[in-house]
Amino acid sequence: MTTAQTTSKSAAAIDKALAEGRAALIGYLPAGYPSVEETIAAGIALAENGADLIEIGIPYSDPVMDGQVIQAATTEALAKGFSVSQVFDVVQGITSRTDAAVLVMTYWNPVVRMGVDEFSRRLAEAGGAGLITPDLIPDEAAEWMEASDKYGLDRVFLVAPSSTKERMQRTVDASRGFVYAVSIMGVTGARTSVSTAAKDVVAAAHSAGAERVCVGLGVSNAGQVREIAAYAEGVIVGTALVAAIRDGGVDAVAALTKDLSTGLSRTGLTEEEA
Predict the structure, then answer these.
(1) Which of 55, 154, 227, 233 is catalytic?
(2) What 3-state DSSP class applies to 57?
(3) What percent of the chain has pLDDT over 70?
(4) Is 66 an active-site residue?
(5) Contact by Cβ (8 Å): 50, 25
């Protein structure tokens, strides 16, 4: 095990939650929406109300995976002049005030444009835990693998219901911190029910050796959190939180996070479920 692996901030945050008998709660916020200051305040509110890890998304002009709510937020952030380097201000603003592990979720192009090494160095300096890279596959990630090892950052790759057994194995082997399981094929967005495919994806990732699998896409209420907490180590909520900050500001983010966290308990699960 490398030094970087033993100091994984994401793994430590998830393991702490598991030791407390619950799954970890991961909340997503787009950087710069409605403003950089409000993103920081909302991130702190997330951490203070039950979130263990925080994902900060970099607004991007071609967000192929994002649903309407997140697209509208990131479009507004870009229109207000958000620049990629401001994401480090957001990360530092949250990590300096909370114990939550803070990851950046980004399409790969903005990282390449800044320079993979420089981006990684600045992220580590800001206290960031690592990167979630929805459009980067391990086969094309040599430069990122090197930089993440150099700076002790987590690298979170995505697996989906469509992942072949070989792809699943390769992704699990390349990931550090946790594996991000996409529960549905399609874009993000709150849904009334969570796809049953999520459970199968998590089981496949566990079979491939993943110790921590977190499920995202479509989670919007405590009932869905409870459903996923029964079989995954972490639950990721995005669209519902973005809608909360849009409609009610930081206070609404705090209230929703508190409510979502009520569904995290894994106590009382059978050994098979846990």
Answers:
(1) 55
(2) strand
(3) 89
(4) yes
(5) yes
Catalytic residue among 20, 38, 66, 125: 66
Q: Rounded to the nearest 5°, which phi and psi values hold at 105?
A: -105, 125
Bridge partners, 156 (sequence order): 132
- Residue 190 pLDDT level (bands cut at 50, 70, 90): low
Q: Which of 246, 240, 201, 272 is nearest to 51 (CA)?
A: 240
The burial of 64, by beta-carbon neighbours within 10 Å (0-12 exposed, 13-18 middle, 19 or more buried), is given as exposed
Q: Which amino acid is at 111?
A: V
Task: Give ∠ CA 248-131-223 in degrees, rounded to 5.
Answer: 45
Q: Is the peptide bond before 134 cis (omega within 30 degrees of 0)?
A: no
Task: Find the mean pLDDT for residues 23-30.
Answer: 97
Beta strands in the chain (DSSP E): 24-30, 53-57, 101-105, 130-132, 154-156, 158-159, 179-182, 213-216, 234-237
Kind of pairing between the strands at 179-182 and 24-30: unpaired
By the 10 Å C-beta count (0-12 exposed, 13-18 middle, 19+ buried), 134 is classed as buried
- The pTM of the whole model exceeds 0.85: yes
Query: Bridge-partner residues for 41, per DSSP?
Result: none
In 3D, which of 21, 41, 20, 22 has the Cα closest to residue 31? 41
Nearest-Å Rg of the Cα atoms of the chain is 17
Tell me, yes or no, if 273 is annotated catalytic.
no
CA 210 from centre of chain: 16
Tens digits of residue pLDDT in 195-238: 578 899 999 999 999 999 999 877 889 999 999 999 999 999 99
Pull the structure tokens for residue 150. Answer: 């150099």
* Residue length of the chain: 274
Q: Before 34, cis peptide (omega within 30)? A: yes
